[in-house]
């Protein structure tokens, strides 16, 4: 058990004294359903209402990390639609490199993620056929043109959603919701998949959450750390 984890754990305990029992209970309940086994990657999404709807779906299905590639379009979700969901997620933006798409994909691959492009492809499979034996990063492209050729070339696998109508594709936010429903349900029911967060991750995430609901949390944190130092 690291010193950082022990310090964060104690700090979290002290911070929790400053929030309501209802909020405290919600944090402790919801953190048990959060996962990083499945993550979502958005390349060049630009419509604010779609961006917001995607965040709401990620939060509702317990997907904690969202990766946003900003090549041409700045990612600005509609706050009225996301209903505050962005507050509870870890949103990673890639916008400073010459090739943000490859930077994001290579970063995820280095962490053990299988990169899965959500698009019809000659080597694709249906969403319920996608293996979940390793962490999955689902790539979704822009509303108009889909994923870039570069993203497709760098992907490890391709997956599609079943469709039975005349329309060629789902709305991007609907695609994310359908994919996450299928994958997270299968993940949670498969006892061979270790999808739960570690104790260290649970503490770090809850600490981040509680700081967002405590007024002037930076000042409160300074006082709490001083108290911890005096008692050590």
Q: What is the structure about, briefly put?
A:
This protein is an alpha/beta fold.
What does this 3D model show about the protein?
The longest helix has 18 residues, at 172-189. The mean pLDDT is 90. The chain is built from 9 helices and 7 strands, in the order ααβαβαβαβββαβααα. The two termini are 17 Å apart. The radius of gyration is 19 Å and the shape is elongated. The protein is 46% helix and 14% strand. It has helices at residues 3-16, 21-30, 48-60, 79-82, 100-110, 149-154, 172-189, 199-213, 217-231, and strands spanning 38-43, 65-69, 90-94, 114-118, 125-126, 136-140, 157-160. Strands 3-2-1-6-4-7-5 form a 7-stranded parallel sheet, sandwiched between helices. By secondary structure, the protein is an alpha/beta fold. Helix 1 runs parallel beside helix 8 (199-213) and helix 1 crosses helix 9 (217-231). It folds into 2 domains: 33-197, SPOUT methyltransferase, trefoil knot domain (Alpha/beta knot, 3-Layer(aba) Sandwich), CATH 3.40.1280.10; 198-232, no CATH class.
């Amino acid at each position: 058990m690291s010193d950082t984890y022990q310090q964060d754990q104690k700090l979290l305990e002290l911070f929790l004294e400053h929030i309501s029992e209802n909020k405290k209970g919600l944090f402790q309940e919801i953190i048990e359903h959060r996962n990083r086994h499945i993550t979502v990657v958005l390349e060049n999404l630009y419509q604010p209402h779609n961006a917001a709807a995607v965040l709401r779906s990620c939060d509702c299905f317990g997907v904690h990390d969202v990766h946003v590639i900003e090549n041409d379009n700045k990612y600005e979700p509609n706050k009225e639609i996301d209903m505050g969901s962005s507050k509870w997620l870890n949103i990673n933006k890639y916008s400073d490199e010459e090739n943000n798409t490859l930077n994001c994909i290579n970063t995820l691959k280095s962490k053990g993620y299988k990169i899965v492009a959500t698009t019809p492809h000659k080597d694709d499979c249906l969403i319920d056929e996608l293996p979940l034996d390793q962490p999955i990063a689902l790539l979704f492209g822009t509303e108009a043109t889909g994923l870039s050729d570069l993203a497709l070339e760098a992907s490890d696998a391709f997956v599609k959603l079943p469709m039975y109508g005349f329309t060629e594709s789902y709305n991007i936010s609907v695609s994310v919701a359908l994919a996450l429903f299928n994958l997270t349900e299968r993940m949670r029911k498969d006892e061979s998949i270790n999808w739960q967060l570690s104790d260290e991750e649970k503490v770090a995430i809850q600490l981040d959450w509680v700081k967002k609901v405590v007024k002037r949390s930076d000042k409160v944190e300074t006082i709490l750390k001083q108290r911890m130092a005096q008692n050590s």
